[in-house]
């Protein structure tokens, strides 16, 4: 009897040292509690009990549960093993990728990933929310009743959106009905429906005030509407003190198999009764744009774009950013089939605005056969053929006659790829271009122009690896490779049978002239190896390319020469990346005869620290007797976590005048960013205030719809 008592004591001591988690796992295997899932419910706690007959597990004190990617913590829990349903009480927190809930009591089903919580808070990036009832209706969907959402993480958020019902779909959208927008405790705005997509960082309403010399004081607004990812857009309502009221609508759609597109309309009655200072009679001005793209069978795509304008300056005066990108919007219909060996294009380009200069192509059919190997030889063949019905139309107010001609053009090229001495790549080629014109510049019918050309391309690549000191100038070098790649191309093009001066100039093909010369380039590069992920990758430290051409004298006939042989301009391009925080790019074009500088740009970008970034650029250009020389500079400085300053300036060295100065002060308002910008440009003073929501920074609360888009330092940012 004493032996039995001793054995019982020993077993009780052993089992008292087994953690609750391990004990439950043993019981689970023994009694078959939760074995119908690949991911078992693992319960940890100060005290965990298993009731086999009731098919439930209870836990108290520092309880935590793991089930797949779902994690749960609370003070007390009951889990039913057959349904995977859990009743959690006391400081309950349940989390999964992308979302978490907190509350005093939560019912949750691990198998269905559904549940509900009373008086709970929810976190679903980038939103915070709370409600009397928070229900998880699916793996990635939640519903809040009598609740709010915000992107401010404070206990008393700076702003919030309250609604009777809010539906949140992770990584997709937030949908709320009958919302009231609060700033602090003050109600600001009511909307019957609110839709915020989470895939794109765009707010619901944007507005930007400002002032310019042309517009006076203005307010530009955009109201985003969102039916679905396939149907959305903006409604614009703008007011300009010196122009009046304007508005428009943008609609973007995706009809799946039927294609996708965008339609835009913008209208203003300039100098109407709402204009603060009327200048002349009221004038209707508008823009209509429609673009559609559809994917067709057999690797074919169809695209058409239509642009109808009230006058030639409507985009420049009201939509200047679009004007800088495309001052003359096109009207065309194109169907293109792209195969590995060829590209077939059908294009119709027409004029829809009588005040623009447009070269119509009604139609153009083009077949491009890509450069491809012939059978199992080193010969390669390339072909380009097109039939185009041209009609060059001048603005109606210029009273100039149109220029029309049907052109049939074909270009055929045969080349041979060879490698000599295991280092020199040699590619000789011959080509011809035959072009038929239904009429020339003098209205003479049926003219055929013949062009013949031939030449050879030679290139090589040499390199050598050096053992450079790893810490040389702090550049963290891992060996150093020097690469030299010279190349030269000789081209002789026979004098065209018809001079360009006798042809209408529709495009570059009509301007082709005699050519006889060399095109030469020399590229030199320094590389090292630097870690990228788990491997070492080649990284460029410096790259210099020098190129020029040499043309022979042009023969006017067999006995006489026209002009003299000469070198063309010498082009230099330099790129330096010695450190991750420093980049330099320089481009220069030198007149080889006069040794004059025709063009040069230099850009330097420096990230000194996380607080300070500097960009400096210079651009010089000389065209005949006109010379421009400008310096640009851009500086970002983080004064502290709350304040940032940005300065941009552009200075003309020749006129010694500031062309533009822009100063921006940014204040961090916790969940908002407030930007105050003051700009001086050509004696035009502009100021605007923009509020950016941190969670949706791509488009501010205020359209970045300023009256211009400034150039970056040098020629690129």
Features:
717 residues; mainly beta; lipopolysaccharide transport protein A fold; Porin; 26-stranded antiparallel barrel; twelve-stranded antiparallel beta sheet; 64% strand; disordered C terminus
Assembly classification: single chain
Shape: globular
**Rg computed from alpha carbons, rounded to a whole number of angstroms:** 36 Å
What value does the average pLDDT take?
Answer: 83
Please state roughly what percent of the residues sit in beta strands, choosing from under 5%, 5-15%, 15-25%, 25-35%, 35-45% or over 45%. Answer: over 45%
Name of the CATH homologous superfamily of the domain at 18-197: Lipopolysaccharide (LPS) transport protein A like domain
Number of strands: 44
> How far apart lie the N and C ends?
90 Å
What is the CATH level 1 assignment of the domain at 18-197?
Answer: Mainly Beta
Low-confidence stretches: 7-37, 698-717
Summarize, please.
With 717 residues, this protein is mainly beta. Among the domains are: 18-197, Sandwich (lipopolysaccharide transport protein A fold); 209-329, no CATH class; 579-717, Porin, CATH 2.40.160. Helices cover 5% and strands 64% of the residues.
Description of the molecule:
Among the domains are: 18-197, Sandwich (lipopolysaccharide transport protein A fold); 209-329, no CATH class; 579-717, Porin, CATH 2.40.160. The protein has 717 residues and is mainly beta. It is built from four helices and 44 strands. The strands form three sheets. It has a 26-stranded antiparallel β-barrel. It is globular and about 105 Å long.
